[in-house]
């Protein structure tokens, strides 16, 4: 092999190695960007008569844009869903929670003891389907209204977030009141809600009639 041929071959090998390395770095960076947690920051406002209804894949009925957004987020859990809810009677929300349960999402529910079996409450349906539900018999209300999504997974491809605000999961709150629901993946806020949920989960007891 002549010196010229050797030099050309060496140049081609080095060029290939350079471009291969550059391509690898680019693809690695792109993959990291794609798997990086996507931030979620949204406030969903509910106000009587403020919106026209629309068709939604989350309900058999026509629903408002804000209700559609709420059901969109409730349909996101892949690993776990932890719920603290004072009053719960809306059937669309219950239908989504049951679908998550059947898909294998780990669901835990904390409720207020006085409201758990109030007329229209959907808590008994959850209990009958072996979704863990806890309460505490007390004169103090369990007045929280929040839920946590995928906070226990540890999967970097999932974005843990919390939904919290004044909104109870009732038809009156969703259709007749002025309510708010904050949705955020801000880490410190999610962790504070998670700490409170775990504290109550230990403090409260499995539901009994």
UniProtKB/TrEMBL annotation:
GO terms for molecular function: RNA endonuclease activity producing 5'-phosphomonoesters, hydrolytic mechanism. Gene3D superfamilies: Endonuclease Chain A. The chain crosses the membrane at residues 6-27. The keyword Transmembrane helix applies. Residues 70-201 form the Phospholipase D-like domain. GO terms for cellular component: mitochondrion. GO terms for biological process: lipid catabolic process; piRNA processing. Belongs to the phospholipase D family. MitoPLD/Zucchini subfamily. This is Mitochondrial cardiolipin hydrolase. It comes from Spodoptera litura (Asian cotton leafworm).
């Amino acid at each position: 092999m002549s010196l010229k041929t050797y030099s050309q071959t060496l140049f081609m090998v080095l060029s290939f190695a350079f471009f291969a390395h550059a391509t690898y770095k680019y693809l690695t960076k792109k993959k990291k960007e794609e798997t990086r947690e996507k931030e979620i920051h949204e406030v969903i406002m509910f106000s009587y008569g403020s919106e026209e209804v629309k068709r939604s894949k989350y309900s058999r009925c026509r629903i408002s844009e804000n209700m559609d957004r709420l059901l969109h987020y409730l349909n996101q859990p892949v690993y776990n869903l932890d719920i603290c809810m004072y009053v719960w009677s809306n059937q669309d929300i219950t239908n989504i929670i049951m679908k998550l349960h059947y898909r294998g999402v780990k669901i835990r529910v904390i409720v207020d003891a006085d409201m758990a079996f109030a007329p229209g409450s959907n808590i008994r349906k959850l209990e009958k389907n072996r979704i863990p539900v806890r309460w505490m018999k007390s004169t103090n209300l369990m007045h929280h209204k929040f839920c946590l999504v995928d906070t226990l997974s540890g999967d970097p491809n999932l974005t843990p977030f919390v939904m919290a605000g004044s909104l109870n999961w009732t038809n009156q709150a969703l259709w007749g009141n002025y309510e708010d629901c904050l949705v955020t993946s801000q880490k410190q806020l999610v962790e504070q809600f998670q700490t409170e949920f775990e504290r109550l989960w230990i403090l409260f007891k499995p539901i009994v009639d």
